[in-house]
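Weekly modeling sync, notes
Attendees: S.R. (lead), two postdocs, one rotation student

Agenda item 3: backlog of single-chain predictions. S.R. asked that every request posted to the team notebook include the full sequence so nobody has to chase files. The rotation student volunteered to paste the first one in as an example of the format we agreed on. Action items at the bottom.

Example entry:
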Amino acid sequence: MRIAQMKRREDFDQILIQTLARGWSEERGEAVDVSRDPLPGGQRFQTQPLLNAYFTATLCRAGRRFLRDGIRFTPHRMRLPVQWALSGPMTRRSALNVASKDAFWVAPPFARGETRLVIPGNQRVRVFDFDLERSRVFPKVGFSPDGMLREIALRMGPIPGPFLPILSSSAEGSYLEEAIIQGWDLNRTPPWRRPTRLRRHAQRLLARWLERTRERKRTVEVVDAAREAYLTALAAARARFPRALPDPLETWADALAERANAGSVIDVARTHGDFQRGNIFVTRARRDVILIDWEHQGIRSMHYDFFTEGLGARTNQGRGARLRRYLAGGKTDSPIDDLHPAKRRQALALFLLEDLTFFLKESVAGPLRAPEVRTLCDLWRRRLQGPRRPGLRNGYSASRHHGSFAASGTVLCPHRRCGIYR
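Predicted structure, as returned to the notebook:
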């Protein structure tokens, strides 16, 4: 997530300063002051908005190389030549200092501040120390540490998986530390490394992990648990944002659970929870593939991760079209393509129930100004329902027919004409 996006959804600057002050104080064993205003004897960090990072004016060569690799390659072929040409000049020390602006000051200063690089994320802040070749991850102030604790428990657990070992962590989830590995996420991998082949390799690694953690359970138990988790998360989100969520959300649980409740047994596994190209990491030296950012791991339906990645569930643009195309027999170049039509509808219904729960929980995980699921609901309303028609209020049925969208063709509408029931 870009810094500009985080500034729109939360009080980002204040949260970042408080997070770094807390994390660095714990790391250094002394009180560290971080302020947006100059501090006596303080060390200045600056930011370049296009690079989504914070660093000192004397950022080391390894740090500049890291920034360069983050923008040099792109999956968009039309932009690739421009980004390739500009990535080198943009990340030279002189260019960084000209294009950057003051961000915050740190006191007492770091002895080797030029080796520090701060990369903020959705719910965490990652600080790279190129001197020690380690990165330390802090949960943002105001956000739940549950994700950190889940990831620490998994990566330090007894089952080997496609992830890096954790070098150190705290029992309270206030930080975790891991080695810096040179490479790229799949979106930034050089085209000659064959990203399509690497994506398939990542899918195979994930499939092996899911197989190790697979359990077979009664379908009704899995669906009922998913429905209850959804309703619990929805109640928490409504309590936090009483007027921000559309009315039909409660009845979507029944419509989706009804369609997902097919067959006697279903496989569940410990899923990644946010499997996407940005969380597939390709190492520079050995071309190994590593899955990163496991803070959303949990027991879900076996196909959850492949739906997330194959349908681009973390990308709003074109989401409705991708769902409809998949239900019509379209391909996603992932293991969910092997599901027959009836199984596709059942598995997609359960995935949507679990994924709505994901976004609802994200909405109350921190001090957000609006629920994360709001964007998803607005998109479904616009893309799947079409333009507003007479008799509709705010794009939804005034009579709340069946508690769902009024227009046919919607995958969440419990009419027989709609996608999930087609």
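Discussion: group reviewed the output briefly. Residues 274 and 296 are 6 Å apart (CA to CA).
Action items: rotation student to repeat for the remaining queue; S.R. to check formatting next week.
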